[in-house]
Amino acid sequence: MSTVLTQNFRRRQDHFEPEDLDPQEQRRLRGLLEQIDYAAFVANREVIGQTLSRVDVGTFQKLAVLTAGARARWAAEAVRLGESGSPATPDQTARLTAARSAYEELAEAYEALRRMVERGYISLR
């Protein structure tokens, strides 16, 4: 079973691939699976395309700036903790965790939006 590395975690590919089918049955099964994949593509294109119809290059730029700011805040918080020289308190750790979480969520959203464009679910204006 293969895995796909995303920004912060591995996503397992769990598609079943039977090996003991005769060639004709394998072709039939591949055809059915292509129909399923195409149905998912059409559904994604329709639903995501309608929901995110106003996305353009400027949207990506704004999201990239927002993500960079969150990353900088996370790093700055870590540097502040390191420079203090004392053990981190639970409140400081919670702030650091919140900053990291904000950055990771924004980075994942950016990558997901980019994949949506790449796969043709969204057309940029």
Q: Can you describe what's shown?
A:
The protein has 125 residues and is mainly α. The chain is 69% helix and 5% strand. Strands 1-2 form a two-stranded antiparallel ribbon. The two termini are 38 Å apart. The model has no long low-confidence stretch (mean pLDDT 90).
Average pLDDT value?
90
Helix fraction bin: 55-70%
Number of strands: 2
**Main beta sheet: strand number and arrangement?**
2 strands, antiparallel
In spatial order, strands of the major sheet run 1-2
Using the alpha-carbon principal axes, give the shape: elongated
Number of helices: 3
Pattern of helices and strands = EEHHH
User: Over all CA atoms, what is the radius of gyration?
Assistant: 21 Å
Poorly predicted segments: none
Hey, roughly how much beta strand do the residues contain?
under 5%
Fold topology:
Layout: E1 3-5, E2 10-12, H1 23-51, H2 57-84, H3 90-118
Antiparallel strand pairs: 1-2
Helix pairs in contact: 2-3
Biased composition (Basic and acidic residues): 14-23
Region (Disordered): 1-23
Supply the key terms.
single chain, 125 residues, mainly alpha, two-stranded antiparallel ribbon, 3 helices, 2 strands, 69% helix, 5% strand, elongated
